[in-house]
Amino acid sequence: MRILGIDPGTATVGWGVIDIKTGAPTIVASGHISTPKEMPLSQRLLEISRDIKEILETYRPSEAGVEELFFFKNQKTVISVAQARGAILLTLEENSVSIFGYTPLQVKQALTNYGRADKTQVQQMVKALLKLKEIPKPDDTADALAIALCHAQRRRREIIENIN
Hints:
Layout: E1 2-7, E2 12-19, E3 26-34, H1 41-59, E4 63-67, H2 75-94, E5 98-102, H3 104-112, H4 119-129, H5 139-163
Parallel strand pairs: 1-4, 4-5
Antiparallel strand pairs: 1-2, 2-3
Helix pairs in contact: 1-2, 3-4, 3-5, 4-5
């Protein structure tokens, strides 16, 4: 199974693709999409959608884990991130990729067994689980890989439950 993890944003969208076979998950590719602040929001959303489509065409994931929105102090930020997430979800749906949403708490719990883990602990687990030499940068890329790993863990659990 090939899984795409996405950490939505307007300025930066993190993404990571992993393969799940027998044994440990392996990284296929990762990176981030950046859009300039001076670009109108509608053009930024189009750029994000186009780049996600290119990632889908290149890596052909069957499923995607996308971070759910959580509490934002800045209402302007939450609105633009929600719009970016909407553009991402639409692009995934148009390309027949199954979508699964995860909160930051679920991701932390899945990777560290501790829902209040800090960003560094999660990043260290991404590095360890994918056998990387260093933590992926920027943070959005590491977060996207964490989301993909969270989804992989969920799918493994479902398979085990179906066997029993």
